[in-house]
């Protein structure tokens, strides 16, 4: 028997990843954790660091804006995120079942918003939802002229981007539109690798398309659903650029997410300590939430 | 006298040479369009210092200030000369990381009267002077003369009083034109209307929040009146929708810095040529929009050279005028000595031939020297947030201001 040759090779291959991970993930994480224990106005340089223990955490937990932004983030994740999955699942099923050779094309079209720059998307939305000149309000105005509809629709032009409640819906709509394709592709990929025999047997037994989706596909997609929903949760709570560009008008109230608030605490208010504490609280929330989701959606052994 | 100056130059030159190896570049960090001014002075600089090239690092406005914040934090990667926009200057000045230009050998105090009082105050922190102003943005009210005429509003109604301004808005509203972009703008104007030297917008000179004063109550009331009468388009200035509304003539007045004329002409609404005019702001309010400064970080190893370039940018009449006359830059000179150029008496074609420069110059000299506070940006946001609650959710003004004060105090304690 030969001793394993070149036993360093695997480590050498893994090293670049771990070096990058340590440099760009672990180190910032650790230094943020350290920073959260200090009071620090960055423009004063390193020597201005003052150790304050957990004071920043106490300040943040007592900060009504922090809680407000957290509620906004959670609301956006739920309202902008949940429908993505409720629609992407049946849509993926339909594409897989009926699009035939066109699957790649159809999913590609759905995927397009995901690969478009978030800035471009947000700017397009802000034009669509402009108060006076936007297409959304023009559509509303036209529909209002139709008999019976005038009672159901708002009587005046909606200030989509400047009123907090309306702005949140626009951001949620953007999230839904943008990430639907991503989830569709995830589910489609999962469907494509499911074993065919289950579906063939069901077809022979006369099961309808819906029954096959509900009783055969869905249970087997469970791990993928858990994965995709967790990604939505993480992405939702980290939401930053879309609301920043879309709803800058109502900055504080409308659609300010926690991620935006963290950034502004650091770079606009010059309070790096509070920002670091906030970032860690957000990270904890994301981690606990993700673990909970994975546990709830775990694949249970058949009873 | 001459010998004195020669000696001083020699000493400065020696200091420069001692501070750095010959040929080491002088790093200037700035943002558009200030970078163009540096390019304008480069030929002069090359003549004076052929062995010290200028290394220009121009980032976008937001990126520049984030990069400078980070560089100050790390204490490394700092340029020799740093551009700072007015909304950052108080925070950067308070940090102590910028060279005090009042101290020798710079002794810039002797130039105090060479700049508008307010610009000097913005760059000062106590007795220290952290930066020199290079351009300013004296405020006036831009208005669409054609829209006013169509609504039967006399031009002077805009400036006479707050009431006459709102009345003009009601007449415009009857023709489906908004008086202003956002009710918030009216609040901001009123807040600055009657301030004197040494007072602050949100904090008094001693740092005590002023949010519950009658000034804020009245400002909120005005904004609410405008909103209830439907006089504002509910658009933040410089949003996409705002630009659209400006182009389409949906907004009749916009308080802004003199530079807005250039923006309107070059990209915002070139098709509205000849339709805009400027006038004094309502009820004698004075304010400024924007303004840029240059500072020398403490960490600079070439302070003497940086100071020389800083003088060239901020205290040289020719440079200041070149920046003004450059079509892309069009910066209003901060140096008062540069404000007597014949250009100031010449008509502005885009504004229908109005002699607007005279008005802008008068405005620049009337703006009080307000006390800056490092928490101004935060206070402004808290106040805007509470104003939103008043305008949108019917929160009472007294409650809103009390809440704003509590939040500001809570933050300012840190």
Rough shape of chain B?
A: globular
Profile the largest sheet of chain B. Answer: 8 strands, mixed
The chain-level structural class of chain B is alpha+beta
DSSP strand count of chain A: 2
Low-pLDDT segments, ≥5 res of chain B = 1-21
Give me the Rg of chain B, rounded. 23 Å
CA-based gyration radius of chain A: 24 Å
- Most residues in contact, chain pair and counts: A-B, 36 and 40 residues
Instruction: Tell me the β content of chain B.
Output: 5-15%
In which range does the helix fraction of chain B lie?
40-55%
What would you call the structural class of chain A? mainly alpha
Strand-residue fraction of chain A? Answer: under 5%
Parts with pLDDT < 50 across at least 5 consecutive residues of chain A: none
| DSSP E strands of chain B, number | 10
Helix content estimate of chain A: 55-70%
Distance between the termini of chain A: 47 Å
Described by the principal axes of the CA atoms, the overall outline of chain A is flat
Which assembly state applies to the chains in this document? heterodimer
Q: What's the SSE pattern of chain A? A: HEEHHHHHHHHHHH
Describe this structure in words.
The complex is a heterodimer of chains A (303) and B (414). By secondary structure, chain A is mainly α. Chain A has twelve helices and two strands. Chain A has helices spanning 9-35, 55-61, 64-98, 103-115, 118-128, 135-144, 164-192, 196-204, 209-237, 241-246, 258-267, 272-296, and strands at residues 38-39, 50-51. A two-stranded antiparallel sheet of chain A has the order 1-2. In chain A, helix 1 (9-35) packs across helix 12 (272-296), helix 2 crosses helix 12 (272-296) and helix 9 (209-237) packs antiparallel against helix 12 (272-296). The two termini of chain A are 47 Å apart. The model of chain A has no long low-confidence stretch (mean pLDDT 88). By secondary structure, chain B is an alpha+beta fold. Chain B is built from 17 helices and ten strands. Chain B has helices spanning 2-19, 34-48, 61-74, 86-94, 117-123, 145-150, 157-160, 162-174, 183-191, 214-228, 240-247, 260-268, 303-314, 317-325, 356-366, 376-393, 397-412; strands at residues 26-30, 54-58, 81-85, 124-125, 128-129, 132-144, 253-257, 276-279, 288-295, 332-333. In chain B, strands 1, 2, 3, 6, 7, 8, 9 and 10 form an eight-stranded mixed sheet that branches. In chain B, strand 4 (124-125) and strand 5 (128-129) form a beta hairpin. Chain B starts with a helix and ends with a helix. In chain B, 49% of the residues are buried. The chains are: A mainly alpha (303), B alpha+beta (414). The A-B interface holds A 39, 41-46, 59, 64-65, 123, 126-127, 130-134, 159, 161-164, 248-253, 267-272, 274 and B 65-66, 69-70, 72-75, 91-92, 94-97, 182, 233-236, 239-241, 244-245, 248, 250, 374-375, 377-378, 381-382, 384-385, 388-389, 392, 407, 411, 414.
